[in-house]
Amino acid sequence: MSSPPGAGAIFLTGFMGSGKSMIGRELALRLHRLFIDLDDLIARREGHSIDHIFSALGEPAFREAEHRALMALPLGSGPVVATGGGVVLKRENRSFMARTGLRVWLKCPLAEILRRLESAAGESGRPLWTGDRQELARLLEERTPVYAEAAELTVDSSVATGETVGEILRRLEERGA
Ligand code: S3P
What we know:
Elements: E1 9-13, H1 20-31, E2 35-37, H2 38-46, H3 50-57, H4 59-71, E3 80-82, H5 91-100, E4 101-107, H6 110-119, H7 133-150, E5 153-156, H8 161-174
Parallel strand pairs: 1-3, 1-4, 2-3, 4-5
Helix pairs in contact: 1-8, 2-4, 3-4
Bound molecules: shikimate-3-phosphate.
Residues 16, 20, 39, 50, 84-86, 125-128 line the site of shikimate-3-phosphate (S3P).
């Protein structure tokens, strides 16, 4: 299903470290749209950090909180939404995003993801990144077909933020958005 150009939200999807938040912030500025980081919204709604939700309540509880936050997004103004890397795992989340906006997959190769995550070591909010490169590679491989299925547009995000934003803007223009 393809959403009408110009209507609804712009959902940025992709693996941890693919640049969703940075790219989303800049894209929202360029489009004069509201920017929402779904992980921040989850933490605010739940009153706990992402790390705390994972460690105290477990991943299934986090996925439920993530689903509830997605459903509660203020979509009226057509915000740019940086999702969390696992939002595409729930079918209901994928169909909600398909109904309400345009889904842009920020595709980034493993080597670049590792480089970014390793240089951001110590940053919070990524309990699934334990420093185990093989486990990360396995998770990326497992999720890649899901990102592909959930995407309407796929953009390379291994390059500088400004370049990726420029490419998204060009692709939106092509679609008449
Ligand atoms: C997750 C990615 C994180 C965060 C949570 C789970 C995932 O967000 O939602 O730790 O399952 O890939 P980022 O993709 O913004 O790092």
